[in-house]
UniProtKB/TrEMBL annotation:
Protein name stated in the entry: ABC transporter
Entry-linked InterPro entries: TrpP
Keywords associated with the record: Membrane, Transmembrane, Transmembrane helix
Keyword Cell membrane applies: no
């Protein structure tokens, strides 16, 4: 009888936590934009060695909209890198993991710095962050390729990095042009008709 009393768990009142209406909207928007980015990344043709990296543009939009914590940005970058591995057209697809981590972290740090400096409503913020996130991601990715393929430094500097800059400019424009429409979608209220 004594043993039976000791093995019973005490009764605890359950606490109900009501979710906020938009508490996880950023997760849904992020997933939707990743899906769009992956599809466009897969079907976009390579024109003269240049293809926009739609995934970077999409997570740059999300990071600009949500101002995530650094650990959330790491999660965004990791998911982006993992999802790009199967559709990668490169010689070393696993390099996408490191490159997208660096791109998302760069974008997150830039957004936080701009918000802290009072540039939260600056219209060119998505363009600048999209461009620089692509430069960070592309710089890391091409450097990994340089090491894996044992390419000379001048090939990386004068052939690969200029292509990264062109893709960065494209991604900056894509991020800038899509930011407004996605922002409207992100902040739409459910009761609006």
């Amino acid at each position: 009888m004594d043993k039976e009393k000791n093995t019973r768990l005490p009764l605890v009142d359950l606490i109900e936590v009501k979710p906020m209406q938009d508490g996880y909207r950023w997760v849904a928007i992020t997933a939707m934009l990743f899906a769009i980015g992956i599809i466009l990344h897969t079907v976009s043709p390579n024109v003269g060695g240049v293809t926009p990296n739609w995934t970077i543009a999409m997570y740059s939009i999300v990071i600009n909209l949500t101002n995530p914590t650094l650990s959330q940005a790491v999660g965004i970058g990791f998911i982006a890198g993992i999802t790009l591995v199967p559709s990668s057209k490169s010689a070393f697809p696993l390099g996408n993991i490191a490159s997208e981590l660096s791109g998302a972290i760069t974008c997150c740090i830039l957004v936080k710095a701009m918000l802290r400096c009072g540039l939260g409503k600056w219209k060119l913020r998505p363009l600048v962050t999209g461009f620089l996130a692509t430069m960070a991601s592309g710089g890391v990715f091409t450097f990994i390729l340089k090491i894996v393929l044992d390419l000379p430094l001048h090939v990386w500097l004068y052939a690969m990095l200029p292509v990264v800059a062109i893709v960065g400019a494209l991604n900056g424009m894509i991020t800038f042009l899509l930011f407004g429409p996605v922002r409207k979608l992100f902040f739409v209220q459910e009761d609006d008709e």
